[in-house]
């Protein structure tokens, strides 16, 4: 995918973002985009973004930037990542991670974190391939990972 871009949520791209998986009755290790957008509405430090391939919405990522968060893993890093099924394994998720890492660098940070659902149906291998390593912590039954930013 040569033409990926990270953009803000807009009136125009919101419907397609809401159509990303999971939809009702889907089983996926991530919340629906509608939940994330609702959380972002009430959480001023949330950073929701859409991944476009040309004009097509192919992903959604939400980070959070709040050093005062009670849970350390929620202070700087990825809260949510949803990639369209037909766009998977083509670099969209990695692009979203890189964009969040870039934003973290702009903010003067040297690491980002993420929590993932353990097990074969979770995104562990994806995050490890993107450079995350397990911190050894388990938070809300999820594996904590960190990516150190060089
Ligand atoms: C997990 C997810 C975000 C990955 O996105 P993606 O766009 O398919 O990932 P990429 O194409 O950028 O893959 C990057 C690397 O991870 C690997 N990878 C991706 N998904 C993988 C999987 N399910 N199992 C093993 N490896 C995987 C790719 O092969 C690639 O490896 P490489 O370094 O050899 O090139 C996507 O499958 C998804 O939305 N899953 C459901 C929701 C989810 O789990 N979100 C994360 C919540 S924290």
Describe the structure.
It is a single chain. α3 links the parallel β4 (76-83) and β5 (111-116). The protein is built from 4 helices and 7 strands, in the order βααβββαβαββ. It has a single domain (4-108), classed as Aminopeptidase (3-Layer(aba) Sandwich). A 7-stranded mixed sheet has the order 1-2-3-4-5-7-6. It has 150 residues and is α+β, with helices and mostly antiparallel strands. The protein is globular. Bound molecules: coenzyme A.
Strand and helix map with partners:
Elements: E1 4-8, H1 14-18, H2 33-42, E2 46-53, E3 56-65, E4 76-83, H3 92-106, E5 111-116, H4 124-129, E6 133-139, E7 142-148
The structure holds coenzyme A.
Coenzyme A (COA) is lined by residues 28-30, 81-83, 88-94, 114, 116, 123, 125-126, 129.
Task: Throw out a few tags for this protein.
alpha+beta; globular; transferase; 7 strands; 150 residues; Aminopeptidase; binds coenzyme A; seven-stranded mixed β-sheet
Concise summary:
The protein is of the alpha+beta class and 150 residues long. Helices cover 24% and strands 34% of the residues.
